[in-house]
Amino acid sequence: MPVDWPDDAYGAFYSETTLPLGVPGMYVGSLSNLELMPDRLVVDHLLCDGERQTDAHAVQYEGEEVHVYPRAGDEFVMWRGSPIATELVFRPGATCETLDLEFIDLSPGWGYEDTLRWHRGALVITDTCGPGDDTWALDRSDEVSMECPPPS
Prior knowledge:
Blueprint: E1 11-15, E2 31-37, E3 40-46, E4 52-58, E5 60-62, E6 65-68, E7 77-79, E8 82-92, E9 98-106, E10 115-120, E11 123-127, E12 137-140
Antiparallel strand pairs: 1-2, 1-10, 2-3, 3-4, 5-6, 6-8, 7-8, 8-9, 9-10, 11-12
């Protein structure tokens, strides 16, 4: 376990959004949950039809940062099945309730900003889309704690 990474920065987080949660709407693309563990990162991308797309990555610690690098033979880290950046860098937020992600050298044509904030907890789909219907709804999961873990 890395010495410089705070234990309370592990756990489940969801991607920040300004879209209203719990209200059906036309969410752009997908929203994501992640779980950061001492040995890996698992990202679940929620899709409007209720399906999920999961990416799992090895992590490396460098001081107070967690780095994700492309798999052997890849030029970019894969995200939702597409190349996104040459490196992902996670940093603890101001409190244990947030985690900050920086995308280093974004893949050409990728539509993400170069930073993304994550909030403790997880999102769930409460209303799915159907054929010809792009509306769906997400809300915070009651089953995943939004509380910081107790000190170890």
